[in-house]
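Form 12-C: Joint structure prediction
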Amino acid sequence: MEDKPHISLKADKIFEIFDFPITNSILAVLIVLIIFLLLAVNYFFESKKQPNKRSNIYYLFNFILKSLYKFFYSVLGEETIKYFPVLASFFLFILLQNWFWLLPGVGSILIKIVGHHEEHHLVPLLRGGTADLNTTLALGFLSVMISNIISIRALGFKNYVARFYRIKEPISFFIGTLEIVSEFSKMISFSFRLFGNIFAGEVLLGVIAFLIPLLVSFPFLILELFVGFIQALVFTMLTCVFISLGISKNH
Amino acid sequence: MIKTIMVGLTIVLGSIFPALTIGKIGAQAMESIGRNPEAESGIRTTMILAIAFAEAIAIYALVVALIIKFV
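Section 2 - Result
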């Protein structure tokens, strides 16, 4: 048989800028970020125009944002408007990153790089952003930090510490430590859930396309669209629930 | 060869309990929708959340299997 499909857990380094390695995942995340920024700026300028001159993309985004708002309203209630920018940004960013690697050309355009001992091997030029553990770890870390800081800001520092440690109940020393450990385990669980789903999807599509090159990849592509959407939704929904737990006053 | 066997065993054993749990969550959700059809959208959202938590355990097993195979 010929070579195996190129599957590697670690993103391969393409080039270096002043000794900082740029991998193919970083490149893909940057490209999706620029696309996202262009869409957001376009939306902003379209919203300033007259209502009969706006393009259709504006109404599509309106529909998406309103659906998201209704979705978060069922959990957060009246405070949704304060936390909606963070949650919607998480959702749209993760959704675009999850769907980017399904485009033709991502993962299949190979370039030749030189290894340590002067051997050449071919690596993909672009790779899905969330298929790299670095991106998902950063997103999980951000999510837990943001929900804790929102909790401090809404409740005040004393009430925030009272969530974990209370002087009047001695058993809260053990339970408080367990809660702190569970905050860290939330970080790990967020990042591994997203990483595992997307990376397993990459491996699945690579192996299926390698075995039967013709039409069989199509249902798996639809499955990956669906999985990417659900994972973005679950990430944002969990962040929303943790924020709402953090700002609730009765304990 | 032991490595290949262990890769297979990891994902097989790691998916049994999440599969059973997801089935149980779905069954309970459907029964509670049948009892109280008005709260359907709230139940559906909570069900999806609980299924995502349970599926994450199977994903951990999958990640370990992939690490054993490819690293």
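Section 3 - Comments
Residues 2-70 of chain B form a domain with the F1FO ATP Synthase fold (CATH 1.20.20.10). Chain B touches chain A through 16 residues (CB under 8 Å).
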